[in-house]
Specification:
410 residues, Peroxisomal Thiolase, Chain A, domain 1, ten-stranded mixed sheet, 35% helix, lipid biosynthesis, transferase
């Protein structure tokens, strides 16, 4: 079987909005979610910025006793899933079979803050004082488990942990499950809450993070003065549904998920292959899977992390995959506003890409001021622009050489 797949619901909790409508409005207005961290948190660190969600209240979707048993990344996942399922109109056991409804939610580092707190407590108070909830609070798969329990989903329930590609690959694999006829609906996406000392220190030690202290200068993808990414937290969820199932219940459809390309590099744990050939291959695989020509793609939501190597390599890869057409494609990195949400980034960017298709508006790359040599494509600098779109692409390229590309149709 090879069934068409519709997006019938979407939900987000991000540094630029705690629901998809607020996020989309702020993205189009170039609002940044990057903030200066407290001196207490960063006292021993060179990093001073992160994209945080200050307005999030888990008690809006969970009981107090449950919040004490869940890490923040799970709370973000549940809130985003709640919005997406409500948005879709799906009611498990009523208009969709629970046994044919699955959950696939990725996370790069899972409950890293809980793990840090648990280790600190164990060293101080003894290992016999470790909480029985510690393990189920930091395991990356527990966001998918919690969401499945919440809605009573009994289909395939899984977690993809492939660093920054986790969200995109979770959506891609959920897409394939529906295509193959193994499910009628899937709740799919990614969640991450890595803002803690060990999370910041680990990426800082790899020299991956921006050392800027001004939030307006921290994330500047494709700009000559970019110096690293700004870590963020958040969650993004899609409800994917077999096209015929969605049409039969007259569900609203945001966009169609047309293709998914994934490949590995077998090259380096942190650096991409310099010529971008594997990133280009992932884009070509997604286009082939979608049965689309390169001329159909009007917008690419770039991985665009704001690191010197990533942005140069992605530009090379886009030129390789699209040839002369690369100069006609509108490109933007919404990480310039949301920060880099690690395992949630691809899922949040999938939501933004679907909304760009629906509304015919390209969100901007903010903080772009100076061209960097051969980085000469249309990065949609600083202001959103209208553009009628037929199809769009979302790129995600992760540490370890995990590459995932999604293609969406209007």
């Amino acid at each position: 079987m090879s069934r068409r797949v519709a997006i019938t619901g979407m939900g987000c909790v991000t540094p630029i909005g705690t629901d998809k409508s607020e996020m989309w409005r702020n993205a189009l207005n170039g609002v940044t979610g990057i903030r200066r961290l407290s001196d207490e948190l960063t006292a021993q660190l060179p990093v001073k910025l992160a994209a945080t969600i200050d307005e999030f209240d888990p008690l809006r979707t969970m009981e107090a006793k449950e919040t004490r048993k869940t890490d923040r990344f799970m709370q973000l996942a549940i809130a985003a899933a709640d919005e997406a399922v409500r948005d879709s109109g799906l009611v498990l056991g009523d208009n969709v079979d629970p046994q044919r409804t699955g959950v696939w939610i990725g996370s790069g580092v899972g409950g890293i803050a809980t793990f840090e707190a648990g280790m600190t407590g164990a060293v101080k108070n003894g290992y016999d004082r470790v909480s029985p909830f510690a393990l189920p609070m930091f395991l990356p798969n527990m966001a998918a488990s919690r969401v499945a329990i919440r809605f009573g989903a009994k289909g395939i329930t899984a977690c993809t942990t492939t660093a920054c590609a986790s969200g995109s690959q979770s959506i891609g694999e959920a897409f394939r499950a529906i295509r193959r006829g193994e499910a009628d609906a899937m709740i799919a996406g990614g969640a991450e809450a890595p803002i803690c000392r060990i999370g910041l220190a680990s990426f800082a030690a790899m020299r991956a993070l921006s050392l800027q202290t001004d939030p307006s200068q921290g994330s500047r993808p494709f700009d000559r003065r970019r110096d690293g990414f700004v870590m963020g937290e958040g969650a993004g969820m899609l409800v994917l549904e077999a096209w015929e199932h969605a049409k039969a219940r007259r569900a609203p459809i945001y966009a169609e998920l047309l293709g998914y390309g994934a490949c590995g590099e077998g090259y380096h744990i942190a650096a991409p292959r310099p010529d971008g050939s594997d990133w280009a291959r992932a884009m070509n695989l997604a286009l082939e899977d979608a049965a689309l020509s390169r001329g159909s793609i009007g917008y690419i939501n770039a991985h665009g992390t704001s690191t010197p190597l990533n942005d140069a390599t992605e530009t090379l890869a886009i030129k390789s995959a699209f040839g002369s057409r690369a100069y006609d494609v509108s490109i933007s990195s919404t990480k310039s506003m949301t920060g880099h949400l690690l395992g949630a980034s691809g899922a949040v960017e999938a939501v933004l890409t679907a909304l760009a298709l629906r509304d015919g508006i390209i969100p901007p790359t903010v903080n772009y001021q100076e061209r960097d040599g051969d980085l000469d494509l249309d990065y949609t600098p600083n202001m959103a622009k209208p553009k009628r779109l037929v199809a769009a692409m979302s790129n995600t390229f992760a540490f370890g050489g995990h590459n995932a590309v999604l293609v969406f149709g209007r």
